[in-house]
Amino acid sequence: MQEYRDSVLPPDVKARVAVEQASTVGWERYVGTSGRITGMNTFGASAPLKELQRKFGFEPDQVVAAAKDLLGRT
């Protein structure tokens, strides 16, 4: 089991980004302490989808910027 996990998420790869348009609970085990999680940590936001995506960082340019920042390539 650990061998499979390491083949999917190599331990030496620390730059990991998770994008979850819901709760971020549980993703920390996959991104580790050096990774970045984009998701919702609140409940009850109500607005048009595009506005919520922008607010919570789900737009493609925001996700790319987070990944580049994590890689130190801003």
The class by helix and strand makeup works out as: alpha+beta
What proportion of the residues form beta strands (DSSP E)? 15-25%
Mean pLDDT: 89
Assembly status: single chain
Sheet with most strands: strand arrangement: 1-2
Total DSSP helices: 4
| C-alpha Rg (nearest Å) | 14 Å
Report the sheet with the most strands, covering strand number, pairing sense and barrel closure: 2 strands, parallel
Using the alpha-carbon principal axes, give the shape. Answer: globular
Order of helices and strands: HEHEHH
- Distance between the amino and carboxyl termini: 36 Å
Q: Into which percent range does the helicity of residues fall? A: 40-55%
* Low-pLDDT regions: none
Detailed description of the structure:
The protein has 74 residues and is of the alpha+beta class. The protein contains four helices and two strands, in the order H-E-H-E-H-H. The model has no long low-confidence stretch (mean pLDDT 89).
Quick rundown:
The chain has 74 residues and is an alpha+beta fold. The protein has four helices and two strands.
Features:
42% helix; 2 strands; 4 helices; 74 residues; globular; alpha+beta; two-stranded parallel sheet
Write the layout of secondary structure elements.
Layout: H1 2-8, E1 17-23, H2 28-31, E2 36-40, H3 49-56, H4 60-71
Parallel strand pairs: 1-2
